[in-house]
Design brief:
The structure is a single chain. By secondary structure, the chain is an alpha+beta fold. The protein has a domain of 87 residues: Gyrase A, domain 2. It has two helices and six strands. β1 and β2 form a beta hairpin.
């Protein structure tokens, strides 16, 4: 008669004495061997994730700190740039005022110099009643005893090299205290010569 074993196959184990023993495989032992490896792998994964999180948090924190420092530095530099812009505007304003003062000084010298040259051009018996000097343009009004004296004035202005475009605008004859008087208007342009830097 043949017996069939329907149970799990048995594992033969070799005993040190040369014999063999038949036993059932212990599944719980295999499970115990795999659990520590699984737990170790999970622990390593969690540790790696934790380390990466820590490194990332540290890097993010240092980047935020750097951003805050740069933002503060930018604000300070913007204040400095604003101050520089204000100083530049003040400097330009002062330069403009200095230029105006220097121009006025120069024009004042021009006026004195022009009056000196004009007085040297006036013939005897010619009087000026009005003088307008603006931007180099000179308008003269005056009186003379004759038209010949007015012609002498115009000639003197032209030959002085300090007055150009000399034009007689009008000349009218009037009687004052029984004497003939010629009222005239002359226009010209004053030119300051290079050698005229010194007021005579």
């Amino acid at each position: 008669m043949i017996k069939i074993n329907l149970l799990k196959p048995e594992k033969k184990e070799v005993v040190s004495g040369g014999g063999t023993t038949v036993g059932v495989i212990d599944e719980s032992k295999e499970r115990k061997l795999n659990m520590p490896a699984l737990i170790g792998a999970i622990a390593i994964t969690i540790g790696t994730i934790g380390l990466l999180y820590f490194l990332q948090t540290s890097s993010l924190s240092s980047e935020r700190k750097l951003l805050e420092e740069r933002t503060l530095r930018k604000a300070e530099l913007e204040k400095v740039l604003q101050k520089l812009a204000e100083l530049e505007a003040t400097k330009l304003e002062l330069d403009r005022k200095i230029k105006i003062i220097n121009d006025l000084k120069f024009k004042q010298k021009d006026a004195v110099f022009m009056m000196d040259k004009l007085s040297r051009c006036l013939p005897d018996w010619v009087w000026l009643t009005d003088l307008n000097f603006k931007g180099g343009a000179l308008a003269l009004s005056g009186k003379a005893l004759s038209n010949n004296l007015i012609a002498d004035l115009i000639n003197n202005l032209q030959t002085s090299n300090f007055f150009i475009n000399v034009k007689l605008k009008s000349s009218t004859r009037n009687k004052e205290i029984g004497i003939d008087i010629f009222i005239f208007k002359v226009e010209c342009v004053f030119v300051r010569q290079p050698e005229a830097n010194k007021v005579v």
